[in-house]
Write a structure and sequence with these properties.
By secondary structure, this protein is α/β, with parallel strands linked by helices. It contains three helices and seven strands; from the N terminus they run E-E-E-H-E-H-E-H-E-E. The protein has a seven-stranded mixed beta sheet, with helices on one face. Helix 2 packs parallel to helix 3.
């Protein structure tokens, strides 16, 4: 898995102060996408064990309280990302059970493969659906276009 950026402190991508990981790899090709540099699966940097450890350290750092982890992209549910993202979200839930996980995907919840659903089983908030430029609305919270849905899961 590759990633384009990691922010250890973020207040834009989800509720509260968060850690945010932008993975690489997206097959949707949405017109007007603001993050086209993440479309290639090999864009950016190789996601390493050291970065995974850093994310856990940041989430458990008591100096800056973080509500959770946000994962965007690219698309975290792209086939090239499933193994790495599943490993990460599993570890976050095991080692940081008080933290929530937000995930953005262009895939629709109803159409997820079993492998994609395995990742979503660890997610607290899922924003699904492709970005549609003709439905773009900057006033929307947590999403770029009105067709995208916010799913909040209680586990």
């Amino acid at each position: 898995m590759h990633y384009s950026a990691y922010h250890s402190v973020d207040v834009i991508n989800g509720e509260g102060t968060r850690c945010t990981l932008f993975v690489s790899g997206c097959e949707h090709g949405c017109k007007g996408c603001y993050n086209q540099s993440t479309w290639r699966v090999d864009a950016g940097h190789v996601f390493s064990q050291a970065l995974e450890d850093q994310i856990i350290d940041d989430l458990t750092d008591t100096r800056i309280h973080r509500r959770g982890l946000s994962i965007s992209g690219g698309d975290p549910l792209h086939s090239a990302n499933l193994e790495g993202v599943l490993k990460l979200v599993t570890r976050v839930k095991q080692e940081c059970p008080d933290k929530d996980i937000w995930l953005w995907t262009g895939y629709q919840l109803a159409d997820l493969t079993p492998q994609q659903q395995a990742v979503v089983n660890f997610v607290d908030v899922l924003i699904d659906g492709k970005y549609e430029q003709d439905k773009a609305d900057p006033a929307l919270l947590w999403r770029g276009s009105s067709n995208q849905q916010i799913h909040r899961f209680t586990r």
